[in-house]
Amino acid sequence: MTITLLISTYNFPEALRYSMLSVPIQTRKPDEMIIADDGSREDTRAVIEDLRPQMPCPVKHVWHEDKGFRRTVILNRALAVSTGDYIVQIDGDIIMERHFIEDHEHYAEQGYFLCGSRSRVTKEYSERLFKGEPLHFSFLRPGLFDRINALRCRILTPFFTNYNHLRGCNMSYWRADVLATNGYDETIQSYGYEDEDLQNRLIRTGKKKRFIKFMCIEFHLYHEEHPTKKNLKETRKLIDKNNEEGLIWSPMGIAEKMNEGA
Known about the structure:
Layout: E1 3-9, H1 13-21, E2 32-37, H2 42-51, E3 59-63, H3 71-81, E4 86-91, E5 94-96, H4 100-107, E6 112-116, E7 118-121, H5 123-130, E8 144-145, E9 170-174, H6 175-179, H7 194-204, E10 208-212, E11 218-220, H8 232-245, H9 254-260
Parallel strand pairs: 1-2, 1-4, 2-3, 6-10, 7-11
Antiparallel strand pairs: 4-9, 5-11, 6-9, 7-8
Helix pairs in contact: 1-2, 3-9, 7-8
C-alpha cells in the first residue's frame, strides 16, 4: 500500500524542522508528505523549502489564510489532495521514532484505525534542540516525561489495547474510511476534541480503534498550553451534539474540498 504522512502545523517552525528531520531516518519512508498549515507565517514556509531537498518523498505544503483555529478545514484540504491508500497523521511538534511509519504499516488492517504511543520532551531539552543540538531519541535518553511510552517492545503491545482517547498527533487510518465520513467536521473551529469526533464517526461506520502501546512511538516537543483551550466547553457541546444525533457524515468536510480542487 502507499502511505501519506500528514503533518499539521501552525506557527511553530522550530518544532516543524525537527519533525521533518525525523522523516529521512524512517525505516519505512512515506510515499508522500503533506504539511497541513493552518495559516503560518513565512518562516514556516522557509523551513519547508529549506528541508524539501532532504526529504525522501514529494512534499506538498497546503496552506490557507490565518483566520483563527481552523485545523479541521486545513486537514480536510490536505486529505483532499492526498494520494496514499493509508494516512499516518502527526502534529508538527512531533519527532517520530525511526520505526514509526513501519510500525503503523505493520498494524494497519482493514476495518481498523490506529493510535500509537507518545512520550513527552521536557522544556529544557526541547530548548536545547531548538538551539541546534543534534537529533537523537531513545528510551534511555534523558529529558523525557512518560518514558515508559518510549519503550518499543512488540511483545507487550497485546496487553495494553484498552484506551479510549484518540490523539491526532499519532493516528493512522485508511483514506477511504475517512472519506466515507466526509472527514473532519468543519463546524468545529475551536480547539479540542475534533479528533475525538472523527473517531466517533469512524466507529459509527463499523470501524474499530486499535491502541498500539509500546509501538508507533513518537516524542512530543514542549510548548506552552494552546491559547484557545478556553473554548473547550463550546467545542465539547458540538461533539456531544454529534454523538446524540449519531452523526456519521460531516455536514462540512472533504467532499467540498474535492469539488473545489482543494
